[in-house]
Amino acid sequence: MKILIIRHGDPDYSIDSLTEKGWREAELLSRRLAPLSIRDFYVSPLGRAQDTARPTLEKTGRQAETLPWLMEFRGQVWDPFGRMEQKKHIPWNLMPQYWTKCPDLFDKDAWLTHPLLASTGEVREVYEEIGTGLEELLLRYGYAREGMIFRCERNSRDTIALFCHFGAGLAILSHLLGVALPVLWGGFFLPTSSVTTLVTEERVKGEVFFKCMQVGDTSHLYAGGEPVSSSGLFPEIYGE
User: pTM of whole model > 0.70?
Assistant: First the structure.
């Protein structure tokens, strides 16, 4: 089985849709996806993901099922730097000078109990919501999770496409691969309209593990002469 995790195109967050560049990205993405034998399409309820999926669905004459757990990661944490105005923040933009000094954030089990990520209870709640939703979806195709292995009577050749977001897409990877989510958030980048591909590996009959073949692939943009967006990526050099 193959899972395609697709981040939405370059976003206009003010209207929860796409910029002009984002629409170009979605069109180039559709030219990549339309020829594939994708059995089912699933999409976040947020507009920028819905709009990214639209050109592909129009080209294929298909519809997508909207799944609430595919929306952007909603769990937040309290500001870890002790500023006077206490505010909640998204958990994936932590400074590397902070999170790299926290051994628990590298541990696939302990990261959820780290005081920062446990400070509101929201991170665990949303992470578990995504994991439950993903497992329920895979059950539709005959894959039942036992530990880090998925059992199946028949390992299919089905391909499914999930149109979602940066934070949520990496949470799906974390859940399938057993990698601490802060490591993925801090060390990986999913460009807009990128495709991340996982396939099942069945080395024992009826038992599969999901193996990541590509992360954040944007070859469709290169093929179409469209630059890769840096949306969500901090400058490589401070101050630029």
Answer: yes
